[in-house]
Amino acid sequence: MPYKTIRQLPDKVKDNLPKEAQRIYKEAFNNAWDQYNDPDKRKGSSSRESAANKVAWSAVKKKYKKNKSGNWVKK
Q: Is 39 inside any structural domain?
């Protein structure tokens, strides 16, 4: 389901990503949620939520990366 605020994001996202990356995740997830409403637009048998999650993480990874300590930092 789409997220209205970053406070609603999964703990895995909130506990690991900086606030700006959380906003990127939320916006990308919500856009993908709308885009992949039709199952024919998804790859294989992916659920709508799974597809949106993949898109959201991909968007985050365009601007952020994990450092040697395992923390997400801006590229």
A: no
**pLDDT by residue, tens only, the chain of 75 residues:** 899 999 999 999 999 999 999 999 999 999 999 998 888 787 877 899 999 999 999 999 999 999 999 999 999
Domain count along the chain: 1
Structure-block tokens of residue 47: 């659920």
CA pair distance 72, 65, nearest whole angstrom: 5
Instruction: Report yes or no: 50 and 61 within 8 Å, Cβ to Cβ.
Output: no
Dihedral angle, C-alpha 4, 25, 42, 45, nearest 10 °: -90
In a 10 Å sphere around its CB, with 0-12 CB exposed, 13-18 middle and 19+ buried, how is residue 37 labelled?
Answer: exposed
Q: Which tokens sit at 35?
A: 């885009």
Q: Residue 30's domain spans which residues?
A: 10-34+52-62
